[in-house]
Amino acid sequence: MNSAGSVRKRGGSFFAGAGATGTGKRGNSRRPSKRGLALRYLAVAALFIFSLGIFFITSRDAVSSKKEEPLILADAVDSPGAAASVSAESGLQAPSPSPSLSTVEFKVKGNDSFYTILDGLDVPPEQIVRMARIAGGVYNLGKVKVGDRLSVTRLGNEIERIEYRFSDIEGMRLERDSDASGGYSAELFEIPYVIEQRLVHGVIDSSLYEAGRRAGASPGIIMELSDIFAWDVDFSTDIRKGDTFSVLYEIATVDGRAIDAGKVLAAEVVNNGKKHAAIFFNESGGGSGYYNLQGKSLRRTLLRSPLRYRRISSYFSKRRYHPIKKRYRPHHGIDYAAPTGTPIETSGDGRVTFAGWKRGYGNYIVVKHNSIYTTAYGHLSRIKKGIRKGRKVKQGQVIGYVGSTGLSTGPHLHYEVKQRGRHVNPLALKSAPRRSLNKAELQTFSALRRDLMALLSRSDTLLAMNEKGKRKKGI
């Protein structure tokens, strides 16, 4: 075995160079000079110093980057993209955004129901049933109507509030309880509205209805005006071209939109040159009604006519030619031509003494009002269900419908009035007022009459506005 192999086997020296003789004798190895050792030590020292510099620079950058991390995270609150980037690089999980409130509004359509609307929002069926049951304590949500409005407010996926408006000024609210029970409470609420007083003037050319609509009055106010003066003016037969009317009434508005006409406060009609006035007055006994300028009730024992929509086809006469029997005979009543099925109202309070078939009169009803007046209604297509002998009826109550039964040439109502057992002309009848104000009431009424009649003479269409909330009585 040679000496070189022996040196490798024993490990040799780090500084052993290629100049060894390879003879295997240690004493013959070549030692480096002093200058060479100095250079080698200098090189090692330089390498050490360089390594320390690299370590120092690297450590400083690491510390610097750690100090800047909070600033980047702070920015991430406002920048979701930055938060995701920092989270991915640093290994931190960004906080999830808090749920927000959102409201969805629905206008109920033909096939909609409370269940189908909420089912479309992915509300669990058992929760829909539970909420409907809770709401049922104040309102039946099975009665949602086409055109009504329903709104659903959610916090994330949880329903916080449901509001259902079942009229222009009323609604139902279902709201999550403030505690942690997860339950709901239901209540009715009133939508804020404003009561205005409006004044309308009109000139009648053909009918009260057409003139009223042209003047801006609602159909309900026109019918109310007709009812108020029903004992003094027959707006189907008494009206003359050029007659005038004025009406002061209340109207409810929501956000400036008219939603409901209230009561008539005062009105005046000039018919064939004669003035008729009506003042709404709250009576001392708790009742209310319309009174003329003298403080007498406009309500009479009997209405002028038992029909709202009609024309007179045959008047009261001692000698009228009968179109079927072809001879002259008395006609002890008024015939009002009207479409089949037109409602017939009883002329006054009373009790039914006959309801059934009576020869030439066909379906026939007789009502006894008091010891003085009795009225009769003939040729009805049918008698209203529940109207029978002995039944009490109220003035204006529907008792039957126009027809052409018995001896009749077409649909009409034969109307008769008896006064103390004798036939009288219904159009000439002047029944007594139902009530007159007492002395104490007249003092209050006089001041009210003065104020309202002054308002009726004005030309304003909007006279006053009340605060939002409950309706006020009177003005």
From TrEMBL:
Main location: other
Record keywords: Hydrolase, Membrane, Metal-binding, Metalloprotease, Protease, Transmembrane, Transmembrane helix, Zinc
Membrane-spanning parts: 38-57
Cofactor(s), by name: Zn(2+)
Chain ranges of the M23ase beta-sheet core domain: 330-426
One GO CC annotation: cell envelope
InterPro entries: Cell_wall_metabolism_enzyme, Csd3_N2, Dup_hybrid_motif, M23ase_b-sheet_dom
A biological-process GO annotation: proteolysis
Pfam families, sorted: Csd3_N2, Peptidase_M23
Boundaries of every Csd3-like second N-terminal domain copy: 197-317
Localization annotation: Cell envelope
Any GO MF annotation of the entry: metalloendopeptidase activity
Entry keyword annotation includes Membrane: yes
UniProt xrefs under PANTHER family: CELL DIVISION PROTEIN YTFB (PTHR21666:SF288), PEPTIDASE-RELATED (PTHR21666)
UniProt name for this protein: Peptidase, M23/M37 family
Biological source species: hydrothermal vent metagenome
Lineage, uppermost ranks: unclassified sequences, metagenomes, ecological metagenomes
